[in-house]
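Q: Entry one of two.
A:
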Amino acid sequence: MSRPKHGKEIFRWCDECGSLILGEGCSICKPPSREFSVSLPADIRPCTGTGVDTVKEVFERKFGTSSFLDGRLIFLNRIAGEDRTDEIVVEGEVIGTLRFEIVSKQFNLDLKLGGARMLAPLATKGIVKVKQPSGHLKGRNLPGTEIMEITGDFEIGDPLVVHSGNLICAGVARTSSKDAPRSRKALGIRDAGKGRIRLPQRDLSWMDFVRCNETHLRKLESKAVSDIRSFLGNRKENEITVSFSGGKDSLACYALARKAVGDVTLLFANTGLEFPETVEYIRSFASKNGVRLIERSPPTTFWDQFPTFGPPAKDFRWCCKVCKLAPITSIIEDNYPEGVITLEGNRIYESFARSRIGFVERNPFVPGQINLNSVREWRAIEVWGYIWLKGLEYNPLYDKDFQRIGCYLCPACLASEWEATRRTHPELWIRWNDNLLQWSKEVCVDDEYVEHGFWRWKNLPPKMRNLAETLALRMPQARTEQAQMKMVKGASPCAAGGYSIEGVISLPVKRDFSRVAEVLKVLGKVRYSDEYQIALVRKGDATLKVFGGGQVTAIASTREEAEELFDLGVKSLLRAQMCSECGICVKSCPREALEISGGPNVDESRCTQCGKCIESCVVAHYFDKLVA
């Protein structure tokens, strides 16, 4: 199942109970519920804790009041934007869009018609009264000559409640309140409608939401439990595990696993980059619930590898393989030699990359593990509803308005979350920021490149490239220790027949060249001269030569074979010199032909050149990101 990126999706609202309805109808009063729509991917979530304070603060700042939100259930719907961008849903209306602005580091608001109609009798500023023009108002820009009255100051881009006769409009300031009366384009009208929305008094809790949706939540549980039991059948694996990150999705998976099979084991890959609250929560949760917890840390730390790889990025997540997959493979190897089934909290609504995940998946980097994605089709609000239904204790960071739980410096974090980390965990923020600033000097970029979060991409997406151009920021230059490749000759016909390809790769020499010859053994029989710093590999009729100076030459009968062999030669050179010693390749080898000691060591009597160690290597996997 995959989710389209644009468009609308219909939800239902119970006006009697004041709650979002997830199933066919309200479990309490069962009257016909009202339809409303939100933007895709429609991964609606509850607004709780300090998140409520954030929403209220922006309404107070722009309109002088947030009282209309008191006692109500507030829902947020993540949509596309420069950073955190959420539709705000109250009383079955999308009342506005909350936006975090990267440069100002402040939340701002785009007002929707529903919000304007709720605010109309309550706002004490951000109000403009205009003449009633002929024709429609929606989409028009009005000059200052149309303004009759302004209540409260506003600046360019601020949201406005606009009154025009019997119409109430959601507007936006095209200029400041000071200049508006003289401006040819004073304000824009985004939408217009008749009548105020009169709100009933509410004093609701999230358990009211659960009661309204209990039937639907029970059905979700029943289906997920049935799927798990059906897959297990009579399989020989007698222990079910849950990948437990301390987040909401893995918590829901835990509850489903307990319902399906009883006893389970929690697996926790402690990367060393977790928030302290997360580590404490996971250990405490296991202890309080009498659940076995297997915790493992990586053999090499993130900080050891940072000088080699630089900051991780959304499109260069080397840290996950070094710091997360390595301990997970170690846990499975030590505890489940015959394999294991693990429930994971991956959901299709989380990202485009996860939109096509199936119920059953196998991770090529973690041999011996079968993953069941039992909440893959659940929305965030369904996960939360299930957690509340089961009365489960959740990570306290969620009440501090963190959307995701994971490594505190993860590039997948939003800039808004990084700002939250600055406030809640200043010591963690300072350590990472200092490392980023040192890196910025090495790659010759301005400090603003770090300050505004551009480090989170290797290749900037269009929205960030545009922002970088607006701010006139310099792009990173290749570091002196970064691998760089120069093609001497592309794939071309040889005089003696076949094709050859030649190139030179320069990279920091961290290990003796003999290590290159060792790694090349996974490709074929190696002849190596220490005196002349050359290693030669023959694969059938093809020949690969790798030199100590970084030269790589591949000759084969076809162009495709030559290019493939050249690619393997370059990756082997990189693997030898940039090996992080994470050990994933060792655990990926079906013949136990590898060990790590100062880099990979290959037992030629066992190696069948299957290539699984290359496929699992973090250096080889991110070859295109590591080579300039």
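Q: Entry two of two.
A:
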Amino acid sequence: MEPTAAEERTKGTNGASGNGGTPSAETFDVLKPTDGSVLETVSVATPEEVAQTVARVRATQPAWEALGVKGRTHWLEQWRDWLLDNRERIADIVQAETGKVRGDSGLESIYLEMAVNFWAKNAGEYLADETPTPGLLPTKVRKLRVRYRPYPVVGIISPWNFPLILSAGDAIPALMAGAAVVIKPSEFTPLELIEVVRGWKEEVGGPDIFDVVNGKGETGSALVDEVDYMHFTGSDRTGRLVMKRAADTLTPVSLELGGKDPAIVLADADVERAANATAYGGFVNTGQVCMSIERIYVEEPVYDEFVERLTDNVKELRQGADGRKYEFEQGAMTSPAQIDIVSDHVEDARSKGARILTGGRRKDQDGDWYEPTVIADADHSMKVMVDETFGPVVGVMKVKSPEEAIEMANDTRYGLSASVFSGDTQRAERVAEQLEVGACNINDALVNYFHLEVPMGGWKDSGIGWRHGAGGIRKYCRTESIVTPRLPTAKSEPLWYPYTPKRRKLMNRLYRLLNARGLKARLGLGKNR
């Protein structure tokens, strides 16, 4: 797999990787986004080390599966309690390597705790054997059972914007399903995942079915080659590479590939709530969320009021590094390469006549900082309305009708999620039903992700497959159908050998009676066709 923008940031030395599991001489530095200093130097796992890690957890996986949901819940709940006890320390690590403010960094561990509780409550039901009823008379002599059996080893390649939610958070349902899990985190942000896996191993003493391998594109490729199922979150460009690599081994994949999420504000909306919601939905985590509201379509009668309220909200956002003090709403950006994209989108909009109402430039200081930015009078000739920005920028466009808003919202290759604001929730739902997205929030932003009961995933270039809901754990499983006779069996069956004209004629008549509809058809009185 070719290097990603994330890899270009790392400052490593390329030594010989060694053979037979000899530790790699290659390393990369994890940088602190708030000032560019080095936090820690991490060793790259060689392909041989990746293979050894996967083989080791694979050997332990059958015993893990044999524990059943109740036994696996025991271990995951112990880990949840460790997360609770270490929440502040984990948030410190999150802040240091991502540049998040405290109000955002604390969400990472909280989500993991919530996810353990959700899957502990629901995994038994979602993974329970199914017993379909045979639909045809001749087949009713058999009982049917469908089982969900985990893939032995699940691989996860995770991004840098939510280094725990989008790594360990995706591992929890896989572990609860009975799979072993190996994760390759982003090179930008491996430290917090290393710590929570260490906590599982050393402090919880959990079974050896959960591990992490660090590295760049070669490490990710090696992981795809070794595992039985691959879950990837990141850019659609890299997602395509993962899928191509997985095709070589026929390894199934799920891909969550980001978005260009729209919000629609109808003329009857509560404009103040819409402005408050889009300020949060567009700028939380400094806009580095796959579900960020990046473009807003506002009906003409409320356009000026909405733009004014949104701009006032964004102007009040405080930006800085706050430690544990909860002093700021906006942190640094995690990737300097992403700042280049944000700057390009803003300058493109500026050059094409859009109004930059607040922000619109990098901050002149050490680290990776970009001001929260509102762009008014945007349109689809501008990158900020059609390409994923993934930063603290929203574009606002005036529309004449809900129909135009729907058309513009769907004018994208992405389809992750959306928001619709209206004083009439039924009207908002009718608009939502016409949007080409995997989820839509009515009079709200981002909240669908925290409702683990419903699927979260994208249409179009936003990905393949889903997290959450029953499908979010069953995707880590293979189905096994077991068909058993209900009655004592004879020595032979009518369909078995030998074939004879008499037997075939009898079977044809029987299946005509069973399959035809109407007396004439069943008796064979109609025309032969």
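A: Comment on entry two: The radius of gyration is 27 Å. Confidence is low (pLDDT under 50) at residues 1-21.
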